[in-house]
Amino acid sequence: MKPTELELQALRTETDEMWKLVLSQIEKAKLCYLSYDRELAFEIISREKRVNAYDSKIDSDCENYIALYAPVAIDLRLILSLLKIVNTLERIGDFAESIARQILDEDYPKIDTALAEELQIETVFDTVITMLMECYIAFDTENTKLSGKILATDDKVDQLYYDALPILSNYILANPEKGVYSLKTLLILRKLERMGDHCSNIVEEIVFYIDAKVLKHTNPKKSVDKQ
Fold first, then answer.
1. 87 contacts: CB under 8 Å, gap ≥ 6
2. CA distances (Å), origin 135, targets 59, 89, 105, 145, 213
3. What does the alpha-carbon distance between residue 6 and residue 84 come to, in Å, rounded to a whole number?
4. Consecutive H or E run containing 183
């Protein structure tokens, strides 16, 4: 392999490792929430430092690659996409950490199982995890056929979030003493909804890298449907 190819492979390997770590963080955040596992919450918070370290290192390595090799065409698109993807992964990791910190908040009691089921919070977690896994597969296989499916799934996450608003409103009216708990639960759902948005952003970067198409500020679902 040429030195440039070795460097690119190293960057992809680092990104793969970061991706898997962030996926693990979301999965642990789900377990942490559902089981109210405070010990697991501390583990998530501790592991966030590794996510940040990956972000900083890959950023630096990408900048060095541009400076040393002045890449063009698909190599340049890969580097530019990696810079945005790792930054987005870091943000998703931040949301997972934030959920863990909320579980440690003394003002946030154990979850109301019936409410959680009505809000379909476990489904929202699972849907976001699936989105990020499919993003990883699309990137790893350099295949954008999953793009339309992932973007459509984000609509499902959005709908679950909006469906939760009247449910929580009625819950507050029926249980005014649990107003703070309800609002904090809404914050968790909002974090999950934002994770879904970030997965859509990752899809846009994958399509840019592989197909040289810019989906940002367009109707991405229509664009990928034409592929």
1. 55, 59
2. 20, 11, 32, 11, 17
3. 21
4. helix 179-211
Round to the nearest angstrom and report the end-to-end CA distance of the chain: 32
* Ramachandran bin of 154, using left for φ above 0, alpha for ψ from -120 to 50, beta for the remaining angles: alpha
* Domains, the chain: 3-225 (1.20.58.220)
Structure-block tokens of residue 81: 């996409």
Angle at 113 between CA 178 and CA 116, to 5 degrees: 80
Residue tagged 């942490």 (tokens): 32
Half-sphere exposure of 6 (CA within 13 A, CB side): 3
pLDDT tens sequence across 161-201: 999 999 999 999 999 999 999 999 999 999 999 999 999 99
Contact 188, 121 (CB under 8 A): yes
Residue whose token pair is 């934030």: 98
- pTM score: 0.92
Q: How far is residue 227's CA from residue 216's CA, in Å, rounded to a whole number?
A: 16
